């Protein structure tokens, strides 16, 4: 499609936004109104109609996924060499490119490294432990504070002089030391990717001129979520020329917690008085009921700009709200429903997306999807089977059913720590290879004492003895309890606590391991269920092999990007759209999140719900559970306040508590009996 053909499909306001190149331009509009479409069309317009070289254009957005999608959309408009050298990336990738190009000016040596948050935390921990014992919470707090300073462009000196109290002074001094050490390591952290370029371009006119010659036009998607340093980067590069187009929606600002400044929308008007503001009002994505739900919900937030979105997509199906007994029933419901709906609606897997507030909510769902063999893709988090603790537990299970599994042996022989070092393992491996034995079997050999010191032999012996003991108990028809006991006996939990950045992280990891074991137990019962005669269980070996196979299939699935349902956090879903959307966990303390309720930031949670709802094109299903395990305890849940804020007439409830909840009836019965008793005295 050429740009002329594309322009013809756009509405007059969109066309205006694409054609306007005489100054800075802001497109401010609601979800699904074609903002991203304006950006992709405008890139093609600049190249094909204005004769601008693609390598002078930079388009930035927030996630890699969004950047990939945008590239794809542009690719359909630009042919052959036209798109050569075009930058479509995240802000951070753009920053990284600038740093790469300016290494010398910035005083870094070639081959600098990028510290991920874990590396950065380790460095900070070293620095903090110099003077005192510190806990994970303190480290997280300082790390968060440093990140905020960097996003707000506050340098260490300024942080120190403005510090309000001793805590802040302490953090500011660490900020300075941390920066010095990073530099000594020839390393930068994530926030530096934006801050360093901004500091450089503000202080070095030559560098600034170089980059202004390189980038002539900038386009920014999801502008409402830029932070101060990102905004400054755009401002510095484009400056008086004002050659940029930014698009955004204040109702979709969901990154305030990471330093985003939705007020950058207002600042833009002050910094660029010539700013052309264009509003779009037609939504091309969703049915009228979905759109009305979104509009009604977000009307509960205060507004700077009023927006009136409309759609001519037809009324569409009512919005379904499905109440489930507990979280497992919720996951089961979503998985089994997608299985049947795919056929009924003649849809593909990729037409479905399941969104949720926190990654942990995906755990149960993943297991259910695997059970039904529904292909899925999990974004913005680690898939269940690729988590370290699950890999450890799986290695134990594999070794239990197959002591010849050397890979499993190597993964866990020293997890938790058993003081068995790499030197010992190397000698053991040589010895085993010579004899054509497995590592585990070799540990039982008397001859081992000739190649290893007695202490090492003893430690290996203790480990194999431990595993042999568990194997024996498993044979005595109590496999699952033997496995649970094993995990307790070796105190895997304590090991997790020692190695986690925070106690809550360790807690979550341990919970994952228990989920895996529960799953194993269930899978044995299920297989045995068909056979009334057998005691109660299928043998543990085949149940474990089934789990291992799932794991492998999972990994293979990771490689092809074909037809799969999408599992995403609400944050990661920004900018995307799907024919059928499920949003899970519409409960108080989950959505809105408990912290948000405590900190009084429910408005941001409402925007998050708004983002979720507006991802849907044809159908929207909201699910919730009446009970959910929280910190190991089964808790009653209250339906989310956001459900009350939706237009009641457009909703279709299933399993609503106040209508036919047997548990509640029973509870009321009990109340009545108690009341009678007290009356009778
Ligand atoms: P969000 O706020 O969720 O990021 P958006 O404003 O960026 O949404 P787009 O993703 O650009 O919206 O567009 C939403 C859908 O509408 C897309 O499927 C897009 O192809 C389609 N669309 C956009 N403009 C038009 C148009 N003028 N005619 C028909 N379809 C359009
Ligand atoms: Mg968009």
From TrEMBL:
Enzyme class, broadest EC rank: isomerase
Domain of life of the organism encoding this protein: Bacteria
GO molecular function: helicase activity
Keyword entries, A-Z: ATP-binding, DNA replication, DNA-binding, Helicase, Hydrolase, Isomerase, Nucleotide-binding
Enzyme Commission numbers on file: 5.6.2.4
CDD domains: DEXQc_UvrD, SF1_C_UvrD
Alphabetical list of Pfam families matching this protein: UvrD-helicase (PF00580), UvrD_C (PF13361)
Keyword Hydrolase: yes
Every UvrD-like helicase ATP-binding domain range: 8-287
Domain UvrD-like helicase C-terminal: 288-575
Binding-site residues, ATP: 29-36, 285
Key word Glycoprotein present: no
Reactions mediated catalytically: ATP + H2O = ADP + phosphate + H(+); Couples ATP hydrolysis with the unwinding of duplex DNA by translocating in the 3'-5' direction
Oligomer and partners: Homodimer.
Protein role: Rep helicase is a single-stranded DNA-dependent ATPase involved in DNA replication; it can initiate unwinding at a nick in the DNA. It binds to the single-stranded DNA and acts in a progressive fashion along the DNA in the 3' to 5' direction.
Name the record gives this protein: ATP-dependent DNA helicase Rep
Species whose genome carries this gene: Modicisalibacter zincidurans
Gene: rep
